[in-house]
Amino acid sequence: MSADPHRAGRELVATACRVLGRRGLVDGVLGHVSMRVDADRLLVRCRGPRERGVVLTEPEDVRLVDLAGNHVETSEGWQVPKELPIHTEVLRTRPEAAAVVHAHPRSVLIAGLAGLAPRAMFGAYNIPAMHLALGGVPVYERSVLISRPELAQEMLAAMGTRPACILRGHGITTVGASVEQATLTALDLELLCSVTLELARLGAAPPVVPETDQAELPDLGRAFNDGLRWRALVAELDERKAADA
Ligand SMILES: [Zn+2]
Questions:
Q1: Which of 10, 87, 153, 206 is most buried, by the most CB atoms less than 10 A from its CB?
Q2: Active-site residue 150, yes or no?
Q3: Is pTM beyond 0.90 here?
Q4: How far is CA 52 from CA 185, 193, 204, in A?
């Protein structure tokens, strides 16, 4: 049997699913991650015959499908996500996107329903998250299941060219130049919303970080930061796995 040419991609997407699960951005079987393979195909997390939830995704649960949503390999027992159009329409519409994350983080849900927008209230605590807030996080106002391409296109119209979008009453979609980047953006958005919520509960509304302080916060480039942060997240997973064994 020939080696699987998509093994590394499957492992990466499965790792992203596990990271999102461990960090509480996905619960149970809801949520999925995809990665562009070429102009017509993507790898996407599917529900499998041994389904145990997104946090326990295995590389075999990451299947090769085309932009029309058809399996292009033997996939008996695996179901593509009902919201696959989120992935296929993003990849069709945004050529710079190499990966897509869709998740249902509770903090984003509650902040969104409360009408609380993430703001750049902190700086050095988490610089990428501050930059995400400064650039703005658009909101797609409909809480529908995005199960049709036209609904995904509505979401994309709201999202514009931003890396993240809040789906009000539903969840989030993030986009990245890599699986790692899309996943880290999802974690940053969850952090922004959970801090926003905690502050709102305290009745606090701190100002946005002053521009003079923003100017002092180094932008080390996403590649450098993302690599370091990703390695730490994978190490955390490995450590838990060893502890659970
Ligand atoms: Zn969803």
A1: 87
A2: no
A3: yes
A4: 25, 28, 40
